Amino acid sequence: SLQNGVTSGERTIKGLDFPWIQPD
To answer: In sequence order, what are the residues at sequence separation of 6 or more whose Cβ sits closer than 8 angstroms to the Cβ of residue 21?
Structure first.
């Protein structure tokens, strides 16, 4: 699912943790 234009998979690939993508 796209969240703010960035997928959780892309976040994993980039190795970055964006607070604006947190499902919490």
So the answer is: 3, 4, 6, 8, 11
Furthest C-alpha separation in the chain: 20
18, 6 in Cβ contact below 8 A? yes
The single residue listed with the structure tokens 């190795």 is 15
List, for residues 1-24, the tens digit of each pLDDT value: 556 666 666 656 555 666 665 566
Q: pTM, whole model, 2 decimals? A: 0.16
3-state secondary structure at position 15: coil
Enter the tokens of residue 1: 């699912």
